[in-house]
Amino acid sequence: MQRVKVYHLNEDGKWDDRGTGHVSIDYVERSEELSLCVIDEEDNETLLVHPINPEDIYRKQEDTIISWRDPERSTELALSFQETAGCSYVWDQICTMQRNLHFSSLNSETFHSLNSELRELPAVELTTLPLILKVIVTESGITDQMRLTELILKDHGFFRNLMGVFKICEDLENVDGLHMIFNIVKGIILLNSSQILEKIFGDELIMEIIGCLEYDPGVAHSQHHRNFLKEHVVFKEAIPIKDPLVLSKIHQTYRIGYLKDVVLARVLDDAIVANLNSVIHANNAIVVSLLKDDSTFIQELFARLRSPSTSMESKKNLVYFLHEFCSLSKSLQVVQQLRLFRDLINEGIFHVIEEVLQIPDKKLVLTGTDILILFLTQDPNLLRSYIVRTEGTPLLGLLVKGMMEDFGDKMHCQFLEIIRTLLDANALSGGAQRANIMDIFYEKHLPELVDVITASCPEKSGNTSEGASRGIRTKPEVLLNICELLCFCIMQDSSRTKCSFLQNNVAEKVLHLTRRKEKYLVVAGIRFVRTLLSVHDDYVQNYVVKNNMLKPIIDVFIANGNRYNLLNSAVLDLLEHIRKGNATLLLKYIVDTFWDQLAPFQCLTSIQAFKVKYEQCLENAGPKSTADAVDPRRRVDERALDKEEEDYFNEDSTDSDEEDSASASNTEKEKPASSNIQEEQPKPHLSNGVAASPASSSPRSGGLVDYEYDEDDEEYKPPPRKQPEASEEEGELLSLKRKSPCVEREQEPSKKPRLGKNSKRENVFAVLCSTLSHAVLTGKKSPGSAGSAVRSIVAKEPEDSRSSEEKNNNSSREN
User: In which domain of life is the source organism classified (predicted)?
Assistant: First the structure.
């Protein structure tokens, strides 16, 4: 309870504190009304008792105060709550109570205003029909339907008396009375009471109720529903049913369905239709439960089905009854339905269906397939286990044979659905059984399906009458289903593709469909190849290329021309799949073999993209070896110096340092000033990181390339930028310029041991020249920086050359 203060507004307009207590909403003694009660927290005395008023008199202020004006005492009252949550809780309770009171008073007023005289129904007589119609139909609303239903059910003689008045009106041909009775019966049905429906659909009243509904005022002539049900509707018992309750429920279910679908189809709303369907569903469950529990009935049913003395007409009726019995089992719970199907399997229902599938009557064959579909819907492993367990069973073969037969306008695709369900690899269970069934299918029945395609297609493209001349007239729909099944098999188990579809030439035989005149069959063959290539197996691609399997597809594409149709889209989709799958072998195969035919279609985006992908594959095939053959300097530039070259340059620079150190000491004595200047300048470095000797700064030119000395660096202008194609010629010219007397002296017989090292050194300078060419090409962007870079490289090369020449001269003097 919530802690509050009670306030009362006095005559002076001030609030008087009446005390502090706890408030609650509860019933007060000797009263049936909910009231606000406040009990004093000190002495437990009642501070306030206020019945909840349905009128809008309450106000909520500042989240902690509820005030109102008491209409009985004409006083202003208020409750001040200690907590905001307590005030909100009591306010919600008051609002809820007001809504309930308002709704109750509204219902009570409506009921008393509209049904003040409905304490009992009027007596059913011919003269009281208008009054009964007014009570049931005219003044009947939502609020009094329960009351009317209660009165009708309480009056046990109401329907019997009403049917008596109906007979009188029918005998007297009182059309007005018959119309009123029609509206009365229709209004009673529209009350949608399950108890009333159960009563009027009983065997005693159902036919008379349907008779009352024959006289619809909205129809010019009366209907003859009773005559149809009595004379034209015949109840067939394939096997005698002895239980009267089962017979009663069967008849009642049919009549309710006839009433729902024929008699009152125009006036029933969704709620009443749902109620009638629930009655039918309950009756079906009762019928199936009673029949399945009757063991003698099930045994007699299968004994007659297996008996050779049973006539064909009787066998048909038994199969139809078995199909309806299995269909009605859907009204049972899943556990009970599964138990029933297992009992039927133990009785030999699959063996019965094998016999049914061999009967020439195609309607009966389709009924057998419907039964199989019901079992597959419940649990596919029931049928799989039977096929695997029973050796030599013809059931799977009969299903495959059914795919190849023509059933006219019937649903021959049911065989396709059954086989697909048996081979479905996405099932949650039954993996071993499914694998065994696939083995049986691939070994025994796959060649049969492929032979149907081969036999129904002409041997040459365009000769569409050849298949008919052979006497083979397979419907195109059958061929389409076979092709769809083959595609499904590839997707389910791609590992069997090599041994089942390639080694037996299945793929080539399926492509015979491209010779048919039906375009959708040609598309089916293309779609089969598309599915086959989705395996992404090298063996499959090699097989396609080796056997030139895409030739028929390209031929039909070329023959189709520029027509934009399903065939055109299917071929383009195949090419797009090959392109996106990066199938290099197939790309080269198609372009190298068929590009002359595909070239006229380059306007299509898919063909253009296919050719671009082909060119990219050629570029990626061997770019490194091609580049090395064209430009050897690039190959040298991309790799590091090997260990032998490193050792050579290190050894050469060490000898040069020792020789130059002696000459440097003599030079320091003669020209100390110049040596000091040279010491202050930083030492240049070669490209391999070895520091150059001090003698490299000598002005004497003896390097591989003779460059004129630039006295004024500011007047230097970089050469114009050349095209990248001229870089190789430029390298050859530079290499020719690098030939100097120093190099000629190195080629003398006395210097033959150094020839190998100098040839390697020329490669190193070729690298420097390549760097020089790149620097010149970028000269236009930054002339200053490029020029300085060129001059630094040019300065390093003569210095290194002069150092080498001095070293060679010193060596000759020592010798």
Answer: Eukaryota
Q: For the residues 55-76, what does the mean pLDDT come to?
A: 83
555-577 pLDDT tens trace: 999 999 888 899 999 999 999 99
For 194-220, how does the pLDDT look when each residue is reduced to its tens digit (9 = 90+)? 888 888 888 888 889 999 999 988 887
Residue 73 burial by CB count (10 A; 0-12/13-18/19+): exposed, middle or buried? exposed
Rounded to whole angstroms, the Cα distance separating 387 from 266 reads 49
Is residue 494 within 8 A of residue 535, CB to CB? The reply is yes
Residues in the chain: 815
Contact between 37 and 23 under an 8 Å Cβ cutoff? The reply is yes
757-794 burial, b if ≥16 CB within 10 A, otherwise e?
A: bbeebeebbbebbbebbebbbebeeeeeebbebbeeeb
Q: How far is Cα 553 from Cα 578, in angstroms, rounded to an integer? A: 14
Q: Which of 38-42, 584-588, 603-607, 745-749 has the lowest mean pLDDT?
A: 745-749
| Confidence at residue 344, expressed as pLDDT on a 0 to 100 scale | 92
- The predicted pLDDT at position 740 comes to 41
What b/e sequence results for 276-291 when a residue is b if at least 16 CB atoms lie within 10 Å of its CB, and e otherwise? beebbeebbbbbbbeb
Whether the CB-CB separation of 454 and 509 falls below 8 Å is answered with yes
Sequence-distant (6+) residues with CB within 8 A of 316 are: 361, 364
Among candidate residues 199, 194, 195, 221, the one with its CA nearest the CA of residue 209:
199
CA dihedral 723, 728, 733, 734 (to 10 degrees): 100
- The pLDDT, as a whole number, for residue 34 is 78
288 vs 269: CA distance, rounded Å: 29
Using CA atoms, how far apart are residues 500 and 543, in angstroms rounded to an integer? 13
Give the residue from 626, 604, 606, 624 showing the smallest Cα distance to 614. 606
User: What is the C-alpha to C-alpha distance for residues 419 and 413, in angstroms, rounded to an integer?
Assistant: 10
Inter-residue contact 507 to 545 (CB < 8 Å): no
Q: What 3-state class would DSSP assign to 50?
A: strand
- 520: tokens are 């959708």
